[in-house]
Amino acid sequence: MHFHIEEATIRDIQAAFESGGLTSRQLTLMYMERIADYDKAGVALNAVLELNPDALYIAERCDMERSIGHKRGPLHGVPVLLKDNIHTADNMHTSAGALALADTYAANDAFLVTLLRKAGAVLLGKTNMTELANFMTRGMPNGFSSRGGQVLNPYGPGKFPPGGSSSGSAVAAAANLCAAAVGTETSGSILNPAHRNSLVGIKPTVGLVSRSGIVPISYTQDTAGPLARTVEDAAILLGVMAGADPEDPATLLSENRVPADYTVSLDPAGLRGARIGINRGYMQDFNEEEQALFEQAVRTLSEAGADIVDNANLPHIADHSSVLLYEFKSALNRSLASLGPQAHVKTLRDIITFNQQHHEKTLKYGQTLLLQAEYETSGTLTESKYIQDRLRDWRASREEGIDRLLAEHKLDAIFCPGVTDSPAVAGYPAIIVPAGFRQDGLPFGAAFTASAYSEPALLRFAYAFEQASRARRPPVLS
Fold first, then answer.
1. pLDDT for residue 319
2. Rg (CA), the chain
3. Catalytic residue among 24, 165, 218, 335
4. CB-based contact 5:26 (threshold 8 Å)
5. Burial of residue 372 (number of CB atoms within 10 Å: 0-12, 13-18, 19+)
6. Where does 220-352 show beta strands of DSSP type E?
């Protein structure tokens, strides 16, 4: 058997399965070997927190099903890694990177995990992440957790930031430790690591993918989404994960808005005639070299046939918002309560106490946000400041932000350098695509965003940009 695993797409994998030249078991072993060689030895990326002891059994079941003519879909037999804040009711822990939760097993699968299992995905393991999705303290490095340690960026281990907080998922996908990975985002936690690891990351409309069974920060901004090496692979993964969940009211709005197949939107000529607004609202965040990469990306859009509308600017809007702080206590306590009576950590206060008792291991960077959330908020979401900030944020990101720009300039999408917080605050989708590399080797990405449930259009634009730019290249691991 010879199968080139580096940069293999889901389409490549399925073709190898169909030809008889590869089995799911063999592929799973190949990814496990890469994890052994590059994640736990060699460059030691530290992206994978835990392997699923049942992964090979799942793969063998997929092989058996295929042998009798049963194929569940494009993810059948394909190894996928999950961020460690996503519940799985199996032999893997769900800790969100926290030592306080290191011994925690979820009683039920997250709804998106149920969908992945139904689609035949091989759940290969859990990935390291910024602890509690980077809502523990100020100043914690992206990709660090007290349980897992520091994730390293494969394009410059120890030199470049891995992005946060879905750092492990992004690094694993970028370094070909899995076919694709699942991350979660509240504000930038999928888009940022994709940006810094030359990946495609999709931050879906809030409610397109169920929030059930994910250790949370926010009711109004949290979502899971794909991290993959190509737009097509990200579209395949999104199609499996999306769907209405009776236990998550946010997903009820997505009924009749989820296509049967997101890949039908992919068109190499998909930018032709599209009106794309260029967001220069925070160009000062980037150095001259990164600004030049963005200008090249804009030229690529134009050469691909897009109608460029300049200065469709979005400012950063969430820097002084209290929304996440107020929602965190309520959301986390509700999530911890779902773990059942056997869990020794049942509340945010329990986590704080555990950290204080084990401070040598847990409080390298402190827990300022945990303390603020516990002692400065009620957990009832009744505070005047919370309500006013929530309404202000929605107004600034939606009516006065993305929606206004789309309507005023008759845009199909807005194109942004790196990551902006407007889609996160609005609950709107964004798709980031590789857009090149700085001379020192650090990847750079650019993102498309538009209004709620515009994923098919954004995927069309992202795919056309990807095909025109061909900007991704794999890291060199040694």
1. 67
2. 21
3. 165
4. no
5. middle
6. 223-228, 275-278, 307-309
Q: Is residue 346 packed enough to be buried (19+ CB in 10 Å), middle (13-18) or exposed (0-12)?
A: middle
- The answer to whether 188 touches 432, Cβ cutoff 8 Å, is no
User: Is residue 165 reached through a cis peptide bond, with omega within 30 degrees of 0 on the bond before it?
Assistant: yes
pTM above 0.90, yes or no: yes
Give the separation between CA 266 and CA 356, rounded to whole angstroms: 51
Please give the Cα distance from 374 to 385 (Å, whole number): 16
The contacts of residue 63 (CB under 8 Å, 6+ apart) are 23, 24, 25, 77
The string of pLDDT tens digits covering residues 13-69 is 999 999 999 999 999 999 999 999 999 999 999 999 999 999 999 999 999 999 999
Q: Is 19 a catalytic residue?
A: no
Question: Is 320's pLDDT higher than 90?
Answer: no
Q: Which residues have CB under 8 Å from 26's CB, separation 6+?
A: 1, 3
Q: Which of 167, 169, 189, 198 is catalytic?
A: 189
Given pLDDT bands bounded at 50, 70 and 90, which one contains residue 1? low
Angle between helices 231-241 and 10-19 (to 10 degrees): 80
Task: Report d(CA 391, CA 113) in Å as an integer.
Answer: 32
Three-state SS across 136-148?
Answer: CCCCCCCCEECCC
Beta-carbon contacts of 286 under 8 Å, excluding residues fewer than 6 positions away, are 294, 417, 418
Question: Which residue shows structure tokens 């303290």?
Answer: 137
189 in active site: yes
User: Quick check: is 167 catalytic?
Assistant: no
Looking at residue 474, its amino acid is: P
Q: What does the H/E/C string look like for 210-232?
A: CCCCECCCCCCCCEEEEEECCHH
**Can you say how many angstroms the Cα of residue 224 is from the centroid of all Cα atoms in its chain?**
6
pLDDT score, position 4: 95
Specify the pairing of strand 180-185 against strand 79-83: parallel
* Catalytic residue (one of 24, 83, 198, 203): 83
pLDDT value at 315 more than 90: no
